[in-house]
Specification:
alpha+beta, 186 residues, 5-stranded antiparallel beta sheet
C-alpha cells in the first residue's frame, strides 16, 4: 500500500491519500480524541502523540497536529497507523455512519436555504475537499449564513479569507437575500 500526502492551506494539517475508499459517502469529523469512539481508524491515528484532529473524506484522511510537534516527527507514525488499519480489515466507522451534512432548517426562508445548500454542494464543498476539509450549512438568520468548517478548514489561517472573499461573494451573487457569511464552532 502506498499512501500519498498533500499539504493543505492550513500548515497544522496534512492530507493523506491511501489510494482507496475511506468513506463510501459523506465525511466524518473527529476534532478531539474523545470523539473518535466509533472509528477504529481515527482511534489508531489519535494514538500517535501530537495528533489533535482527524477528518475522514471519501478518499482521504486529514490529520491536524499540535503546534508543538513537527510533521517530520509524527508523519511516519501516522502513515503506519493508516496502513495498519487498512491491512487489519476493520471498518473505518463501526455501526451506522452519521454522515456529516447540512443542518436542517425549518421556517419561512426554506427556499433561500435550499439554494444556499445547493450552491455549497455544487460549488464550494468539492473545492474545499481538495484541500482536505468540508464546509456545511449550520443556519440562516436575517440574511446571515452560518457555516461549520471541518478538517483542514477548521483553524486554517486562510479560512476567514475563503469565507468572506469566496463563499460570501458567491452566495451574495446568486442569492440577494444573503448579506453575510459567518463561521460557527462545532
Amino acid at each position: 500500500m502506498f499512501i500519498q500526502t498533500e499539504s493543505t492551506p492550513n500548515p497544522a494539517t496534512l492530507k493523506f491519500l491511501p489510494g482507496q475508499s475511506v468513506l463510501g459517502t459523506g465525511t466524518a469529523d473527529f476534532p478531539q480524541a474523545d470523539t473518535a469512539g466509533k472509528s477504529p481508524l481515527a482511534k489508531r491515528i489519535f494514538a500517535v502523540e501530537g495528533v489533535n484532529g482527524v477528518f475522514l473524506g471519501t478518499d482521504f484522511v486529514t490529520v491536524t497536529k499540535a503546534e508543538s510537534v513537527m510533521w517530520d516527527h509524527i508523519k511516519p507514525a501516522i502513515l503506519g497507523a493508516i496502513m495498519e488499519h487498512f491491512q487489519s480489515g476493520q471498518p473505518v466507522i463501526e455501526g451506522e455512519q452519521a454522515e456529516s451534512a447540512h443542518a436542517a432548517h425549518d421556517g419561512p426562508d426554506g427556499e433561500i436555504v435550499k439554494q444556499i445548500k445547493e450552491l455549497l454542494d455544487t460549488r464550494v464543498r468539492p473545492a474545499v475537499a481538495q484541500d482536505g476539509g468540508d464546509i456545511t450549512f449550520h443556519g440562516f438568520d436575517r440574511g446571515i449564513v452560518y457555516l461549520h468548517m471541518q478538517g483542514a478548514c477548521a483553524g486554517c489561517p486562510s479560512s476567514t479569507l475563503t469565507l468572506k472573499m469566496g463563499i460570501e461573494n458567491l452566495l451574495r451573487h446568486y442569492i440577494p437575500e444573503v448579506v453575510e457569511v459567518r463561521p460557527v464552532a462545532a
